[in-house]
Structures are given as C-alpha cells and as structure tokens.
Amino acid sequence: MQRVGPNGLSRRRSAARTVGSHRARHEGTRHGSKQDQADDEEALKEFLSGNKKTAAQPAAGTDALPPGHPPIDMGRGARKAQGNAAGPSQKANLPPLEYEAPAGWKENPPSRMFRAAEFDIPSATEGGENAQMIVYYFGPGQGGGVEDNLARWKGMFTTEDGQPVGDDAVAIEKMETNGLTVTTIDVKGHYSDMMSRPNQAGPTNEAYRLLGAIVETQDGKWFFKGVGPAPTMDANRDAFMAMLKTMNRP
Description:
By secondary structure, this protein is α+β, with helices and mostly antiparallel strands. The protein has helices at 34-47, 74-78, 146-154, 230-244; strands at residues 2-4, 10-12, 22-26, 98-101, 106-108, 115-121, 131-137, 157-158, 170-177, 180-191, 208-217, 220-229.
C-alpha cells in the first residue's frame, strides 16, 4: 500500500506491496497562503493549456474556462518562475483514491499544485523519449465538465498537414469500476501543449498518443493524462486500462 503524505512523498506499507506493481492511496493537507493561490493559478493554466484556439478548445482566459473552474488571475500567474517545486504547504487536500499502477512506471513526487501523482513511462524504443502520466485533482465541483476536457485534450492533436484530428482519430469509452464512473479517451497525432512541452516549437514531429481518463467520485473528478511517443503509449495501453479497473474509493 502506498500512502501519499503531506509532503507529497510516499510511505509504503511493505506488507501490501505486490511484485511488479504498487498501490497508491492519495491524501494530504492544504494551506491557504498567497503562494498556494499563485501555484493554483499556474497549475490550472497548465491543465487547461493548448496552443490551438478552436470551438472545442477555447483560449486560456478566465471567461473561456470550462464550467466549474475557479477564476485565474493571468497576470499574477504569468509572473511565477517556471519549475517551482511543490513543497509541503502546496499539497492539495486529496480525498482517498486507490489504484494499482503498472509495473515499470517510475513514480516521482508531484512537482506542481493539483498534481496528485506523476509517473515516468519508460520509452519502448532504445534511446527514445519517455512518456509521462500525470494525475490531477482540483477539488469537489472543480476541473470542468467531462465533455469539455475530452474536447480540449483532442484539440491538442493535429494531422501531418496541421489540421485538427477528426473524430475517427479519437476513441472515447465509458465504464464502471468499483462504483466509479470512468470515461477514457485515446487519441493519436502530432501533439502540441505549450505548457508541458515549453521547448517544443509547434507540434511534435513524430506521432504521439494520449491515453486519458476522467474518474468521477463523490469527492470530485480525478484526471489521468498520459502522453508520449506513440510506440511507448501503444506498449502501455493494456497496462493503463488494467490500472483503471483497480480504481477504488475506499
């Protein structure tokens, strides 16, 4: 069993560990300082980021946020230095959620506010770029609607000629697991995300794949966003789906 404490680092219960996998349980504390609020704004901008302005993916401004998001002070958030590490006072108040992460995924301490967990997914090709899975939690009633977020994630992908990917490039499914509603999205194309890839000018040259899920609980929505080179995400698709089936709100 893995319990995430107030400092964001894991305390493992060795008796509950299984070979080739680990179980994560999220919970923490939150403090309401001005620095926390600034970090909140930065994290929300990151979560909502994308460099395409389409009907399905509005510009990142307060009036264009998906319903349910708290307002963002763009000026104050823009003044924050990049790469701020999340300290003990910046941890979100996380309700309990348990799931078993795939073997081989390397967990890292959350680096920003609202990131409940971060995992590196090793490249499936020698010398290739790793993929990443980020787990977000914004609080009860926050984070926007399911359809808004699915459309925004789809809007981060284009075809080889720079056009938005069509509906035929996206697979969306809904399932129930342990009483929780889980909506998944699977989309492939050339990926653009100015916040998570700040050094990338425009869409990726190679095909990327996003495996995402929105888990609806009584405490609010949890967002699982995994992105990386298509071969690596292809190799981890079954493991990702298996993880979703272990979701449990104890």
